[in-house]
Amino acid sequence: MSTIRLIAPSGFCVNQAAAARGIERLEALGHRVENQSVVPRRFQRFAGTDAQRLADIQDLSALADECDIVLAVRGGYGASRLLENIDYASLGRAFRARPPIICGHSDFTAIQLALLSQTGTITFSGPMLAGNFGAQEFNDFTWQHFWQAISEPRFTLNWQSPTPACSATGTLWGGNLAMLVSLIGSPWLNVIDGGILVVEDINEHPFRVERLLLQLHHAGILARQKALILGSFNGATLSDYDGDYDFNEMCRMLQQRLSIPVLRGLPFGHQPETVTLPLGAFGELHHNGQTASLTVSGHPVIRQKKAAQPLR
């Protein structure tokens, strides 16, 4: 089994019961969960002071050899405040010597993209302690796809997408859409040329998603990609004011404006059932007009590859 180190670089974990449940489940599966003191830590709305949360990231440059997985407790807001003070050189040296499995999503996307831009480190956009592993019902799909991503050097995802056939190869990158857009023009976003961009978000009305995507379009970022994959966009409530405008209509408008394929339907993001994607790995995308497949390779994998069976 694995040693999992918790980090909390973003918001305070409001749902302490979920975090405790996540730790209990991981330990029941035989994993060792260390640095649990970050879970109840709090300063204002954050999971500790800026200095404490920065230390969570910086301490990874001296990660113990037995530690296999670094797991974010939750998202929220706070990672952006840390970016300019991270010692990327020391992290880069440590990660090149032994690439760890670093996993999280949501607000954590800011640190993931900064690490990719500054050090070339591949991290995993996937489940977190409280929201996923500590959910009321443990999701087998999420657990199996998490373990597949961190243990198999090459794996393939298949899903249904009602979009035209296409094929593309390139660097897989992206994560949370709002966080990605917030980094435009900063040193923490090195735009990938010829990449496969995968984005997701939550609680964003379709018009807000459209505005964020158009910002990427107007900045010339989407035109530099081979393909755009839209993951989960849930939590928004439509009203009579929207008329016939919804997420599907937004996607149709977007495809008309873009010269690259736009695929939908990948179960990825803020939802109970999510795949795990290594940001910075190599992606091979094929779509026959009905079923899309994404083969991923070139990412770090865990040294212990045997996964325990999930518990309820």
UniProtKB/TrEMBL annotation:
Chain ranges of the LD-carboxypeptidase C-terminal domain: 169-284
Assigned keywords, A-Z: Carboxypeptidase, Hydrolase, Protease, Serine protease
Gene Ontology annotations of biological process type: proteolysis
One of the record's GO molecular function terms: muramoyltetrapeptide carboxypeptidase activity
Gene3D superfamilies found in the cross-reference section: Class I glutamine amidotransferase-like, LD-carboxypeptidase A C-terminal domain-like
InterPro entries assigned: Carboxypeptidase_A_C_sf, Class_I_gatase-like, LdcA_N, Peptidase_S66_N, Peptidase_S66C, S66_fam
Domain named LD-carboxypeptidase N-terminal: residues: 4-126
The EC number(s) this enzyme carries: 3.4.17.13
Protein family (similarity comment): Belongs to the peptidase S66 family.
PANTHER family reported in the protein's UniProt record: MURAMOYLTETRAPEPTIDE CARBOXYPEPTIDASE, MUREIN TETRAPEPTIDE CARBOXYPEPTIDASE
Name used for this protein in its record: Muramoyltetrapeptide carboxypeptidase
Source organism phylogeny: Bacteria, Pseudomonadati, Pseudomonadota, Gammaproteobacteria, Enterobacterales
